[in-house]
Amino acid sequence: MKNLCFLIIACGLLMCSCDIRKKDTKATNTNVTKQVTSDPTTVEIIDSVYDFGTINEGDIIEFSFRFKNTGNKPLEIADAKASCGCTVPEKPTAPIKPGEMGFIKVKFNSDRKPGEAHKSITVTSNAMPEFPELYLKGTVIGKKESN
User: Fold this and answer.
1) 27 and 49 belong to one structural domain
2) pLDDT: which is higher, 145 or 24
3) Which ranges of 38-132 would DSSP assign to H, the alpha helix?
4) Residues 83-111: pLDDT tens digits?
5) What is the Cα–Cα distance from 80 to 3, expressed in whole angstroms?
6) Cβ atoms of residues 131 and 43 within 8 Å
7) Helices assigned H by DSSP within 1-147
8) Pairing state between β 134-141 and 49-56
9) Domain co-membership, 29 together with 57
10) What is the CATH number of the domain that holds 89?
11) Burial code of 83-102, b = ≥16 C-beta within 10 A, e = fewer?
């Protein structure tokens, strides 16, 4: 009986500790968002969609999306995430000064990705309105089809 009570109490404590971690994660994410949007600026997107046409499976496509800081404060890119692990964005490390151009370099690996490709890149920054999603699209010809 003692062991059963101990087991129930231990399970209850374990479940409570898991819930606390979820709350901590949410608080951390909120703080990051507040820091990014605390000093907003504006941005003009020069390239929002890149159509790479038709490629063979296994080809690697690289493209740099261009944008310009049209505001009067530095543009800070906090994060750039792709919709798929086959697409890797590389954000600028330094803030983009007002009037300057910036680039988000994207590398798409088409290995084992035959068919239509539609990849999106989500950018987190201090731009207001928010940085729009960037898109890669095209067609990947499978290895069996190209032989």
Assistant:
1) no
2) 145
3) none
4) 999 999 999 999 999 999 999 999 999 99
5) 50
6) yes
7) 2-37, 143-146
8) parallel
9) no
10) 2.60.40.10
11) eeebbbbebbeebbeeeeeb
How far apart (Å, rounded) are the C-alpha atoms in residues 121 and 98? 23
| Helix residue spans in 44-119 (DSSP H) | none
Q: What is the pLDDT of residues 100-146, one digit of tens each?
A: 999 999 999 999 999 999 999 999 999 999 999 999 999 999 987 55
Domain range holding 104? 43-146
- Based on the domain organization, do 26 and 61 belong to the same domain? no
Residue 25 burial (CB < 10 Å; 0-12/13-18/19+)? exposed
In angstroms, the CA 22 to CA 108 distance is 33
Query: How many domains is the chain partitioned into structurally?
Result: 2
Do 137 and 95 sit in the same domain of this protein? yes
pLDDT of residue 144: 77
How is the beta sheet containing 43-45 ordered, strand by strand?
A: 43-45, 60-69, 101-109, 87-90
Q: Where are the beta strands (DSSP E) in the chain?
A: 43-45, 49-56, 60-69, 77-82, 87-90, 101-109, 115-125, 134-141
